[in-house]
# Entry
Amino acid sequence: MSKKILLEHAHIEGIRFYETYRKNGGYRSVEKALKMSPDEIVEEVKKSGLRGRGGAGFPTGMKWSFLAKPEGVPRHLVCNADESEPGTFKDRYLMEFLPHLLIEGLIVSSYALGSNATYIYIRGEYAWIPDILEQAIAEAKANGWLGKNILGTGFDCEIYVQRGAGAYICGEETALIESLEGKRGNPRIKPPFPAIQGLWMRPTVVNNVETLAAVVPIINMGGDEYAKIGVGKSTGTKLLSVCGNVNKPGVYEIDMTISVEEFIYSDAYCGGIPNGKKLKACIPGGSSVPILPANLLLKTAKGETRMMNYESLADGGFATGSMMGSGGFIVLDETQCIVRHTMSLARFYNHESCGQCSPCREGTGWMYKILKSIEYGHGKMSDIDLLWDVQRKIEGNTICPLGDAAAWPVAAAIRHFRDEFEWHINHPEEAQTRNYGLAHYADPIHVPTV
Amino acid sequence: MKQFSAEQLNQVQAIIARYPEGKQKSALIPLLHLAQETFGGWLDTETMDYIASILSIKPIEVYEVASFYSMFHMKPVGKHVFEVCQTGPCMLNGSDEIIAYIKEKLGIEAGQTTADGLFTLKPVECLGACGYAPMMQLGKHYKEFLTKEKVDQIIEELRTASKH
# Structure
């Protein structure tokens, strides 16, 4: 079983509260970090090889080093807790069960970046979590870890929690900043990047919840030690949230050295597919990343065992690979319909498009419309090429990555399951009664033994 | 006229104090949440104008934000809103059946409210509970691993509570 770092203490009763958290080694990283210089902390994070856990996988230390530091201008750290990528619910778990771990990471990171006012922007629907975070903040403050002159170092820091109000787009960092400024969540044109002009046009770093929590073990063990966990450029541990057709959905921490097959079938993780059904397909990193049929999921096109890490999941590019993304692991069994599932995702992106860029605003609507028509038995064979054409015209032609995120699932579904779309169009009535009869099209493989 | 209580006005000031001077507009979304909870579960023009006056911003700045975010209701809703997730991962675990069952049980379509004003059905997109599907948001909390029996139970409890 993988090493647990972030969730090491998650099972301890009362770990949500300060006393227990502190007794189990909590806030040690603050004691250590505040004796270091901010630049030394950035250096440790760089050495750790930590990559942004929100989905893009950008090296965190590098992002931090881009932060502008003009004289006399306040800087801000913003924690992105707008977790909205379908299939993803790992940050929720961290915040609900280990709120102090996030607060601890935020204090260290705020010190490293020189942020005296740090904001946690949390999705509005997680309506009960701000209370948990605010209690943790109050406890941290009462014990001298937050507020004025922390540990006598002269460093002041306050952390505030702000709720969003239902908009996937606010997970994009510039849309999040707009929302935090009290505006519609319309992404900004970059440059300028937030590191130069972000919140209130001040230099800003926006990092995901899990990324900031990971700063705690990095400081505690040192960047070099952290980099030894995992493999290659996939250092440290990653939280995965598993859903769909598995026996044990939930949140798991892995050190990125296990295979996809072990992850799905081992009782330590997903525990296999319920009711003895076969694995049909999987979206390994949140709904935006390409879906893979079972054969390409477990082995790469070259026939190598596919591993649960950034590089291996991306092996083969979009032609035969996918992405680690946000760690939202969605499993589909042999009875699931790819057309219907893709239609559901297309509806999601259409609903969540902010409407700023025409290719996304119009294109997501067209994709949903065409998929709906195929799903409900009114499709034409030319619709498949039309869909392909629409998604291609969205990708790369929008201000923010929502356009790409909407295009990729459709492209991958057609790429790997074109025959299933054709079957839908050729058998409109059968498709309507949900009598899929599609198992053999998708080439599901037999349940392997781990 | 709509007015926050003295206690709420203190809360409003505490929220505004989180931001630098002159950046009080950042308090808009938190205040709209507070207003929606306080003034009947939805945001009418009078309420939005009131929030604009508190933050010294133009009413249009409030309207354009309120209409952008899906948690803000721009029309009256029932006392309890069933916000049932219908996105991919929930769909894989039977959200379609749950939505159909609620429609049948309450005799309403998506977006409608029951005649007694008690329930509104609002299918929504992913709420970040994919591993605990199917699910819905009910007020501040999530109801997860929904079954028809659980839906019956939720409706029954809310109906009973409304009689007291």
Q: What stands out?
A: The two ends of chain A are 13 Å apart (CA to CA).
